[in-house]
Amino acid sequence: MVGKKVPGSSPLSKNETPFQSGPQAIIEGSNSEQIVLMKSRIFLLLVAFLLLAGSMIGQTAPPASVPSAQNPPATTSAPPDDKAQPQEAPTSSAPTPATPASATPASTAPVPAPPATAGQAPPPDNPPKSDSEESVETIRRVVNEVRVVFTVTDRHGHYIKDLKRSDFRVIDDQKPAELRSFNSETDLPLQVGLLVDASNSVRDRFKFEQEAAIEFLNAIVRPRYDKAFVVGFDATPEVTQDFTDNAENLSAGVRMLRAGGGTAMYDALYFACRDKLLKQEQTGPVRRAIILLSDGEDNLSHVTREEAIDMAARAEVIVYTISTNISGMKGKGDKVLERIADATGGRAFFPFQMRDVSDAFLSIQEELRSQYAMAYKPANFVADGRYRTIEILAQDKGLKVRTRKGYYAPKQ
């Protein structure tokens, strides 16, 4: 049995081992299968780990489309050929830290703004309004609102102080305007400039005019509420007392004036409007006025009459003129004074006697305390810096409304 050769089998060589059977063969086969299975599992785990790591890296890295959308110049500058396209991802992601503008409003604004308006942050002086469109609309509403002060008299020149909002309509730049507010203003703070002609042409009555002006300032200026300044002019304007509410200082400024020299009235009016009233701080509604004492004769000014009137309109100043011509006849200078007062919404006074100068000051004082104030919204308003006319009409045809003739729209 042992030495018998199995039919069909080849003889074994010296190095070959006979086929094993039985329990030992079963154990060895099972071990090999387990090794193969274990290697397969390890391979699958490695593949899964690599896939998971790849997905995590893709989530943490910024997508290439985000920087390219925020920085269009970086993507448009890349070369169009296909060889350069694989470098777009690192090129577009590099500017990302340098463009924090889109993230800044979200981090500073109290309420997140929508992406379309993220770049339009509200102005720093109005932090509660995070919506930029609302902020822009508010600014436009303030700019479009025009405030104007006016006086109403009857046929006899008496002031009418008890009118209502419905008694008026406003025409702005030849179009009806929407009336927003209306008040009878008898207590607005005053900013008053007293311009006194100190040229040789008024020397004979200069002393009386000084005393009348002092009396007016003492009556009109209230401490801690109104302010006034004094300018004397001959060839050049001279400020003898700057803005103050002190009546004694104003009186001293008037007494410092000395008559002599030529007359540059237009220059003095231009200077008072541009360098004094227009630059004076204004914390709320005020009434700006200039009282001009002169004979109206000008022979030395560098600016024209209309340029002086134009500057008064820009400063929103009402000019009251008091003629020092006591000849009894209106001269050329009186017509100039009348033109200035009418164009600015003021009134021209022509006292024929010296004592009438005091009465003119009293009338101005009464008018400054007998005015109305209204605010309205113009139709078809454009912030183009253009001059726009104003016309306030009373429903009662027997009443006369006196106000400035127009204003300059703000220019953006």
Under the CATH scheme, which architecture of the domain at 188-369 would be assigned?
3-Layer(aba) Sandwich
In terms of per-residue confidence, which ranges show pLDDT below 50 for 5 or more consecutive residues? Answer: 1-19, 61-127, 129-142
- Broad shape: elongated
Q: CATH homologous superfamily of the domain at 188-369 - what is it?
A: von Willebrand factor, type A domain
Order of helices and strands: HHHHHHEEEEEHEEHHEHEHEHEEEE
Q: Classify the oligomer.
A: single chain
* Derived structural class: alpha/beta
Number of strands: 14
Care to describe what's here?
It is elongated and about 140 Å long. The chain has helices spanning 23-60, 65-70, 72-76, 88-93, 104-108, 132-144, 206-220, 247-255, 265-277, 305-314, 332-344, 355-368, and strands at 146-153, 168-172, 175-176, 178-185, 190-197, 227-233, 237-244, 287-294, 318-323, 348-349, 371-377, 387-394, 400-403, 406-408. The chain has twelve helices and 14 strands. A hairpin with a 3-residue loop joins strand 6 and strand 7. A six-stranded mixed beta sheet has the order 7-6-5-8-9-10, with helices on both faces. Strands 4-11-1-13 form a four-stranded antiparallel beta sheet, covered by helices on one side. The protein has a four-stranded antiparallel beta sheet with strand order 3-2-12-14, with no helix packed on it. By secondary structure, it is an alpha/beta fold. Among the domains are: 146-186 and 380-412, no CATH class; 188-369, von Willebrand factor, type A domain (Rossmann fold, 3-Layer(aba) Sandwich), CATH 3.40.50. Helix 7 (206-220) runs antiparallel to helix 8 (247-255) and helix 7 runs parallel beside helix 12 (355-368). Mean pLDDT is 77; it is low at 1-19, 61-127 and 129-142.
